[in-house]
Structures are given as structure tokens and as C-alpha cells.
Specification:
This is Arylsulfatase. It comes from Halosimplex carlsbadense 2-9-1. The protein has 16 helices and 14 strands. By secondary structure, it is of the alpha/beta class. It has a single domain, classed as Alkaline Phosphatase, subunit A. An 8-stranded mixed β-sheet has the order 4-3-5-1-6-9-2-10, sandwiched between helices. A 4-stranded antiparallel β-sheet has the order 11-12-13-14. The protein has a two-stranded antiparallel ribbon with strand order 7-8. A hairpin with a 5-residue loop joins strand 13 and strand 14.
């Protein structure tokens, strides 16, 4: 492990749905992130970080396990993490105090993503957050593990999500970010009073649809925009039931910028507090997004049905004594490598059943991504033979399963508008991609493959699939290798109705989360 290996505190922040190109710290021409710009003086700013999927559940499962989506199995078809030892479980077993604070419905005991956190709050709109926190989270888990009691738990989740949707659509869904920052401070103080090192994970949901930013931020970034009048339902646009003109896109993106600025404001408050209380220097601070957002590019709105770079090339900033503070335009990072980076910082080995620590995947190590130079840990699922041979050092991979959790709403909007969706379209397609900093190859299940030269075509407009570009050919070859190592055959998923192959329990959970009827 690194020269500064543990123990050491960890603050891990995920800005949900935050697109890299809308952050002033990444060169955006609106001042959305002045506090992150200050943070950049202490951190390495990675420009080539890649998420393993374009939505919350599989990305967080990868962050918590170090595995690709097909390996950990928390995907569209199976919307919860099962049989995995999480990062929080490993740190907790090593004596860390652990906490998770989020208002994202996917990051709860319900999906098992909260496993290992001593304290957690999901900040549901109506259901008291404390109901699923601390010791009561164990009761919640017991309820979910019992067929009879789980029906009670299911109704509570349904109540929370229904209430959140109602208030959000009416413009009344207030952000929980201020409360989350306050809870982090309380948790840190309580942990240190008990003599414990701490790991605090937060997910901040402001920039996720729908956008209803606080007034002071809306006045700066979206003056005069009525957030209840613009299109806040991506399925209406994606289905063809609703059009959005340039002026409305400008209003939508203004609201989005205001939400990002609100996140930045409270991150600044948290960072200042850590500095003022002399906790800053010995704390690993990670700030990233789990995925981005599309605003009409490629005919899409939101973060479904595509794996283009605005969705998967995410912001990532890391502060640590072993990581030089600079802007890194060359190193491609896979987000699941942050799992190994945290273990390295803490000096903690993975718990039983967890993905073993891989030095080649730690950002703290001088041999980061030089897989052939670092012995593969025994039992590592994410270390392939092609890694050991040095063939995949420069590649990242995206693995997007069939989007069953989004199709219910999309089909509903299309049906209401009298639109028939083509089942041989991207809406029903599984997708994978191999990516390096200069090229990308996208494998689509039901539509033609795509390929782009990211160095000369960063907007992914000129499709080069089927051509003779050497970068594209090499990237497609790496993707083929990834697919063969993963042993994930799309032929195993062939049913025309994407729900037919799902088990009843998975359908029940998706129904309770409001994604299918």
C-alpha cells in the first residue's frame, strides 16, 4: 500500500447527475463551482474519469465493491446488490466509524447499498430519515429478509417515493444538501469523541431531475425561469411526446447550473469547516459524479438510453498527500478504482468475500494502471488476464444493461401521445463501450455499433464504426477482450419483452420504487 497508508479519515462525495462540462472548475464559462475551484488548489483534477454505467445503482455498487456491473449484478434487471462485501463493511470491520447520507432512493438498506454503514440517512421527503438510520437500519434489513415483513417495508418505500415525486413535480421538493452537510459534521465530531477514524459517504441529489433550485441560486443562473413551466420529465421528450426548443433548453440548463452552484456552496461550507477544525490535512477527500446528463444531444434528455461521454466521462477530484495537486488530462481513471484508493489510504484489506486490494488500481500508487508491473491479488475478479499482460492499461469499460427501469415511464408517455416505440431501438438496447482518451467504441445490442475519435470529435458526432481508423480498431479489440473476459453474452438476454425474464421479487421492488406498474 502507499507510503502514507492508514489509518486516515475519508470524505467521499458523489454529486449525483453532475456533468463535467457544466463545472467552472472544468472550464465552464459560468461560475457554477467557485469552491471546487479553490479545492482544486489542493487536489488532482482528473479530466478522463469514466463511470462504469450511466445511472446511479450500478455505479454506486461498483464504487462500493470495485467490480464492473456484470460482476456485482446490481443492474437494470436485478435492482439491488446481493452477495457482495462492500467498502463500508471492510472499513467498519477494521474499526472505522462509517456513515452514508443521501436523498437518492437507490442508496438505502432497501437495495443493500447501505450495508456496512453504522449510521445512514436517506432523507426521504415524508418518511423520517431516522427510521432507516443507525440501529434501526438493522431492523429494516431484517424486514427485507423476511417475506412477510418485507411487504411492510415495501409500503414505506412506496410512500416515501410517491411523496417525493408529488412535491418535486409541484416545485416544492426542497434540497436536503444543507442537512446532509450538517449530519456529516455531527458524525465526524461523534466519531472522534469515540476515538474512531471515520468514513463518510454522501450523495447530493440537487442536480438530478426535477430542477427546483433555491431562489438565490435560481436568480443568478436562471433569472425569471419558472421551474414548473419547463419540461422536467425526460421521458416526455425521449418518447417524442414533447418537443423542447432552444430557449427552453437554455432555461432548463440554467436551472441545472443553479442546482450545481447550490451543491458547490455547501461543499465549500463543509471544506471550510474541515480546514478550520484542523481535520483537512489527514483526510482523503474524493469528489466525483456518478454520471452526467444529456440536454438534447443525440436526441436524448436525461441519462438513459445512451453511454455518450457527457454521461460517462465524469468529474473527479482527489485530495491526498500522495496525489499531486494538478490538472490531469492524460490519466484515464475507472471510477471503481476509487474502492482500491480508499482501502490504500486506510491501510485496510478487503473483508471476507470482498474484492481484494489491487495496487495497480489505487490512485495513490506510482504504478497506477500498470497492471503488468503489479502482481494480481489472489481472487481478484476485476483483474483480467489481459490486464496482467499489459493489454488494457489504457482502457476503461462501460457496461449498461437493458434499461427496464426506465421503459415503463417511457412507454407510458409514448402511449398517451399515440406513439409506437420501435423495439429495435436504443430504448430497448443493452450497451457496452471500450474507451481510451482518444477513441471510443460502443457496442449496441439492437442498433448499429458506434465509434468516435474523442481527440478530434469530442462531441461524438462523426460515427467511424466499420471504418479503418487504427485507434477505433484497437478500442474495439479491447472491448472484445473485455467481453470475452467477462463471459457476458448478449444472447442470454433475447426476450422481446424486457420484463418477461425478471423474477417476481425484482418486479415487486421496481414497482415499489415507481418504475413499473
Amino acid at each position: 500500500m502507499s507510503e502514507t497508508d492508514g489509518p486516515g479519515n475519508v470524505l467521499f462525495v458523489v454529486m449525483d447527475t453532475v456533468r463535467q462540462s457544466h463545472l467552472s472548475v472544468y472550464g465552464y464559462d459560468r461560475p457554477t463551482t467557485p469552491n471546487l475551484e479553490d479545492f482544486a488548489d489542493d487536489a488532482r483534477v482528473f479530466e478522463e474519469a469514466v463511470a462504469p454505467a450511466p445511472w446511479t445503482l450500478p455505479v454506486h455498487a461498483s464504487l462500493f465493491t470495485g467490480l464492473y456491473p456484470t460482476q456485482h449484478g446490481a443492474t437494470q434487471e436485478n435492482p439491488y446488490l446481493e452477495g457482495a462485501t462492500t467498502l463500508a463493511e471492510s472499513l467498519s470491520a477494521a474499526g472505522y466509524a462509517t456513515a452514508c447520507y443521501s436523498s437518492n432512493a437507490w442508496i438505502t438498506p432497501y437495495t443493500n447499498l447501505a450495508d456496512g454503514f453504522d449510521d445512514q440517512d436517506n432523507f426521504f421527503q415524508v418518511m423520517p430519515g431516522d427510521l432507516l438510520s443507525g440501529p434501526l437500519s438493522k431492523i429494516w434489513k431484517t424486514m427485507n429478509d423476511n417475506d412477510t415483513l418485507r411487504s411492510v417495508a415495501d409500503r414505506l418505500v412506496e410512500l416515501g417515493n410517491t411523496a417525493h415525486e408529488y412535491f418535486a413535480e409541484s416545485g416544492g421538493g426542497d434540497t436536503k444538501t444543507p442537512e446532509i452537510v450538517d449530519r456529516v459534521q455531527e458524525f465526524v465530531e461523534d466519531s472522534e469523541e469515540n476515538g474512531d477514524e471515520w468514513f463518510s459517504f454522501v450523495n447530493l441529489m440537487d442536480a438530478h431531475l426535477p430542477y427546483h433550485p433555491p431562489e438565490e441560486f435560481a436568480d443568478e443562473f436562471a433569472p425569471g425561469v419558472d421551474s414548473t413551466a419547463v419540461c422536467q420529465n425526460s421521458k416526455e421528450y425521449n418518447s417524442g411526446a414533447r418537443d423542447i426548443d432552444d430557449d427552453e433548453w437554455e432555461d432548463i440548463e440554467g436551472l441545472y447550473d443553479a442546482e450545481i452552484a447550490h451543491i458547490d456552496h455547501h461543499l465549500g461550507r463543509l471544506f471550510d469547516w474541515l480546514r478550520e477544525t484542523d481535520r483537512w490535512e489527514d483526510t482523503l477527500v474524493v469528489v466525483c459524479a456518478d454520471h452526467g446528463e444529456l440536454f438534447g444531444e443525440h436526441g436524448l434528455y436525461g441519462h438513459e438510453f445512451g453511454i455518450y461521454d457527457p454521461l460517462v466521462n465524469v468529474p473527479l477530484m482527489v485530495k491526498h498527500p500522495d496525489v499531486e495537486a494538478e490538472r490531469d488530462t492524460e490519466t484515464q481513471v475507472e471510477l471503481q478504482d476509487l474502492y482500491h484508493t480508499v482501502l490504500d489510504h486506510a491501510g485496510v484489506e478487503a473483508g471476507a468475500g470482498g474484492e481484494p486490494f489491487d495496487r495497480a488500481r489505487s490512485l495513490l500508487d506510482a504504478d497506477y494502471r500498470e497492471f503488468a508491473s503489479v502482481d494480481a491479488p489472489r481472487g481478484a475478479e476485476s483483474r483480467f488476464s489481459a490486464h496482467d499482460e499489459g493489454e488494457l492499461d489504457d482502457y476503461a469499460f462501460v457496461d449498461y444493461h437493458r434499461p427496464v427501469v426506465e421503459l415503463n415511464q417511457l412507454e407510458s408517455k409514448a402511449s398517451a401521445a399515440g406513439i409506437d416505440l420501435d423495439q429495435d431501438s436504443r430504448f430497448y438496447s443493452r450497451m457496452r463501450a471500450g474507451r481510451r482518451t482518444d477513441g471510443k467504441y460502443i457496442r449496441n445490442e439492437r442498433i448499429a455499433d458506434e465509434a468516435y475519435r474523442l481527440d478530434t470529435d469530442p462531441d461524438e458526432l462523426a460515427d467511424l464504426a466499420g471504418g479503418d481508423d487504427e485507434v477505433i480498431a484497437a478500442t474495439e479489440g479491447a472491448l472484445v477482450t473485455f467481453e470475452s473476459e467477462m463471459d457476458g453474452e448478449w444472447a442470454d438476454v433475447t426476450d422481446e419483452d424486457v420484463l418477461d425474464d425478471m423474477g417476481d421479487e425484482a418486479k415487486d421492488r421496481l414497482s415499489d420504487l415507481g418504475y413499473i406498474e
